[in-house]
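Inputs:
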Amino acid sequence: MPTKATALRKLKPIVAMNEALNAAMAADDDVVLFGEDIGAYGGVWALSKGLQKKYGEARVFDTPLSECAIMGACAGAAMAGLRPVIEIMYVDFMTIAMDPLVNQASKIRLMSGGAFDLPMTIIAPCGAGTCEAAQHSNSLEAWFLNTPGLKVAMPSTVYDMKGLLTAAIRDNNPVMYLWHKVLYDLEEEVPEGDWIVPLGEAAVRQEGEDITVVAYSLMMHRAMEAAAELDGRVSVEIIDPRTLHPFDLDTVLRSLRKTGRLLVVHESPVRCGVGGDIVRRVCGAGFELLRQAPQVIGGMDSPIPFSKPLEDAVIPQVSDIRAAIEAMVE
Amino acid sequence: MNFTTDQLKRMYTTMVLIRKFEQNTIEIFAERMKRGDFPGALHSSEGQEAIAVGVSSQLRTDDYVFSTYRGHGHAIAKGIPINKVVAEVHGRATGTSRGYGGSMHLFDKRINFMGGNGIVGAGLPLALGTAYAAVKRGTDQVTAVYFGDGGASQGAFHEAINMAAVKKYPIIFVCENNQYAATTHVSANCPIEDIGDRAKAYGIPGPVIDGNNLFDVADTVGAAVSRARGGEGPTLIECKTWRHRAHCMVIPEHRPGKDRKHWASRDPIDQMRAHLTAEGIADAAAIEQLDADAQEQLEAAVAFMQDSPFPDPAEIAGVVYAD
């Protein structure tokens, strides 16, 4: 809940993230921000707009176009006791930064016997839907989830974009904060002031009786649309996990006690994917709650193609989600 | 570089301690392997002692060091107690990384020893972060990062040195060119004679020195440290050296005998011993005493390790994530 809530106002995601950064930097001199085009320009997504002017070049700065160096600098700065935040311009570019993240940042706490904490946040836009083709459209959360030592936040609402980023920056571990590009123009009413959304607490976006749909990021919105189309015919409960690690299994199990049916929807590939793992958890902890086989829909076994009809075909659309719900309930 | 007699003797003893540690660890590992008890990977730094000790002679306790998988010497020279190094390479709870890291991952936060690395060249980007932190905080701490001739072929080498040069970060990039990346000769890794020459591309100094001569190392690193503390930016130092052993224990010796013979005549400890004797700092008896001191430290450390428990697996989950 907001700490200093007053009136409501309209806010967009990037402004919400910028506000979270601003508040974190004002509160803690150890919070620093760097990446490509982050300084005077203010970030290609406008993430850091105004922050260099306010906090100076020592805390907000441009780097060379070198994702490996950026991630390495981030991990090293965290080892030295700072609380760095970096932007990787597209999550796709994480491939270049994987060694310092996966072999270094996620493992250094363990390899040092717990001596070094690495409080660091990696902000990266993700997802398809903007016709940017196969190397600017990925959803890579499963990679990061398969890396012990990392946490993964995937906000879907403007409120959460601010609250989860605040939580990520305060967390003492490396956190991947992945926001969906298609949500860039989302506008929501949120309170004035600052707030935090703790990592590991799911949100019930809509209550329902017949089926539980677990969906995050852009797919949460599409699941809501599908549920609206089915309104009056099927009562859909929609759970947004908000963070994938830590994962709030209890909220999902509580919902399944009512519905007995589970559908997981995500954009990243189904193969070895997030949904399969959620189903594994549910079967392990609450198999008796399920009255039929749980289902997962997600990205096709394909890189993201360019042309709009092709792009739409490889990731779940509202109609796909609606069809999956109908198939399970009827 | 002016060292006191005491400093010279201490540096000599540390070099000997590193060598004895390497030889002892190989013995213990070989014995275990014979029993079918595989003890893990071991990369001996025997022969490269002058670099580790020479670099550390120019650093303060609060300066940062990033090491490699061939980093026992770096760790001992920076000041991780020998007991904790021995205990770590043998997987004990009393090790410097509590048994979670092993030979390739020696860490000691108290002296800003930021760890070895199992990934070739991966320390260079990390060094940017500690160097940046020092600049941001306005301290004059420097960061030294070691890597090998193989590491200089990694993309991380370019990204890190380029960014450090652009930002004028206080980093000393120490390339230990021991001529071979695993089994591949440096000529197959680098098309030019000296890796140090690459510094020109970044507009920074790139001295190429005899890494087996402690005084050359200390002088060159000393100048680089002054430059870094003064805000003038990084230096790339190429130290030509030679490891006495093959890449690791499971790779047989493959290097030409004439090269081994050539480098055997330029052993860093022999050179140091000759210097101490020639300068009248230590006679044969005094040298013998310093060698015995190192032997005693090592034996005590091995005994400490043997008395130490293994880590408790019940604690793993609490080590992965911070609260």
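The longest strand of chain A covers residues 262-269. Flag for discussion at group meeting.
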